[in-house]
Design a protein that fits this description.
alpha/beta, 38% helix
Length: 361
């Protein structure tokens, strides 16, 4: 069952540098100011990706089960399926700037990322603590800044293109809050997207976050604890990380799953609780955190959802939004099987085939 819960300056630019002379010159040229907004067009497919999303640590990334090349693998599969014809068909985001991050993050947290020990804890890769921070910035944090910029761009595309949807082939860093990272999540892209949308001047007043990653989304929950303009539906395995009881107070509708929950139970609970949440809150924007760590065999999610179950899940969420003309942005979040990329690509192709991605032929 689902539970209705009551919620209640300047910086050293070295922390945002990739560690190369060219990048240092670029940082000096921009002065850390806001990046120019990329234009949104109805003629583009609202999928957001660029090759810089990939995380590379000279092989150290293999010490974490996360597929650091997931976005690129999905992108190639979508090209193979003909959904994307050329790189110019989709959006390539800018790297988010320091000033943009400081709209949510504390200066103290941003400064903490200059220490490889702190980043190693967030990335859950202990050997990183021995890696010079300039390399950590370039190989891990910079790709994550591109993905964070991608989440903001995708939210804008869903809202401004008139198509009503967008997908970022990355992002969904739901364990990161304004002053704390964790669970491979160094930047609070969901909180940043919420803040951007609410201040956009485009009439967004009620945002529904549908978090279907296997883990509780404790980062943005802590950030948005008191914001009644946000309704959080979080469906997660309650016996795994992070088990954050304080953050749970922000969840308006919690769907707590036991380990090894199967398709039938999962989809039944989702359909009931999502329909209930939309009817109650009447959102005019949806942020969909579409983690695939719910797949059977995932070493961290510990649920038993099949690839077919993921496809049906995504189809139901998109259909629920499209039928009510609610703009939706999808973020990929967790997924720790190498097969996740193909499952996600197949799901996106299914959305196209079911006419749930307007303008994509």
């Amino acid at each position: 069952m689902c539970f209705r819960l009551n919620g209640a300056a300047s910086a050293d630019q070295s922390s945002m540098s990739s560690g190369t002379d060219e990048d240092d010159k670029e940082d000096e040229a921009t002065g850390g100011k806001l990046t120019a907004e990329l234009p949104i067009s109805r003629d583009r497919i609202p999928i957001v990706y660029r090759p810089e999303y990939g995380v590379r640590f000279l092989g150290l990334q293999k010490l974490h089960p996360f597929d650091a090349a997931k976005g690129g693998n999905i992108y190639r599969l979508l090209k193979t399926n003909g959904l994307i014809q050329t790189d110019g068909d989709v959006y390539a985001p800018n790297e988010i700037t320091l000033e943009e991050l400081l709209a949510v993050h504390t200066q103290r947290y941003i400064d903490s990322l200059k220490w490889s020990l702190n980043v190693a804890k967030i990335a859950e890769i202990p050997p990183l603590l021995f890696v010079p921070n300039c390399f950590v910035q370039r190989s891990y944090l910079r790709p994550m800044r591109y993905q964070t910029g991608g989440s903001l761009l995708a939210a804008r595309a869903a809202l401004e293109s008139g198509l009503g949807w967008a997908i970022n082939l990355g992002g969904g860093f739901h364990h990161c809050s304004a002053d704390r990272g964790g669970g491979f999540c160094p930047y609070a892209d969901i909180t940043l997207a919420v803040k951007m949308l609410l201040s956009s001047g485009k009439g967004i007043e009620r945002i529904l976050i549908v978090d279907l990653d296997a883990h509780q989304g404790n980062g943005y929950e802590r950030d948005l604890m008191e914001d009644r303009r946000v309704f959080i539906l979080d469906m997660y395995n309650y016996r795994i990380y992070p088990r954050d009881q304080h953050a749970k107070l922000a969840i308006r509708r919690a769907v707590e799953l036991k380990p090894h929950t199967d398709d039938e139970e999962y989809l039944r609970k989702l359909k009931h609780c999502l329909s209930q949440s939309i009817a109650e809150f009447e959102p005019n924007f949806i942020i969909y955190n579409a983690g695939t760590d719910i797949l059977k065999g995932d070493p961290l999610g510990l649920l038993d959802i099949t690839p077919e179950g993921v496809v049906e899940r995504d189809e139901f969420v998109f259909r629920s939004a499209l039928e009510r003309s609610i703009p939706l942005v999808m973020l990929l979040s967790g997924g720790y099987l190498r097969s996740s990329a193909r499952v996600i690509a197949n799901s996106i192709v299914n959305l196209r085939d079911k006419a749930l991605l307007p303008t994509v032929q």
